[in-house]
Write a structure and sequence with these properties.
Blueprint: E1 5-15, H1 27-43, E2 48-50, E3 56-58, E4 63-74, E5 80-83
Antiparallel strand pairs: 1-4, 2-3, 4-5
């Protein structure tokens, strides 16, 4: 038997939310105000979103909504060579 270097990569998607009361001409305009404030928060590396009128909410990850994993074959230098497809089987017979 041979020894293989395998890298397990897990990607987890979290969901959080924050509610704002936004005065605007249309829902799309209100959403654009929130989107701009959210983009500014991300650019600052924070999850604290502050609207121009001073409303502030913190968007915290509340739940995991998706999880993916991948398996990668590595060469002797630790460089990724290729993906290895793995079909998940049930943990118990059904």
């Amino acid at each position: 038997m041979r020894t293989f270097q395998i890298r397990l990569v897990e990607c987890t998607t979290h969901q959080g939310s924050a509610d704002f009361a936004v005065h605007a001409e249309t829902p799309a305009a209100a959403a654009a105000i929130v989107a701009e404030a959210h983009g500014a928060a991300q650019a600052r590396g924070t999850n604290m979103v502050t609207l121009p009128d001073g409303q502030t909410q913190v968007v915290e990850a509340e739940s995991v909504v998706a999880r993916e994993r991948a398996f990668l074959l590595l060469d002797d230098a630790g460089v990724e060579v290729c993906d290895i497809p793995v079909i998940d089987a049930p943990s118990r017979p059904q």
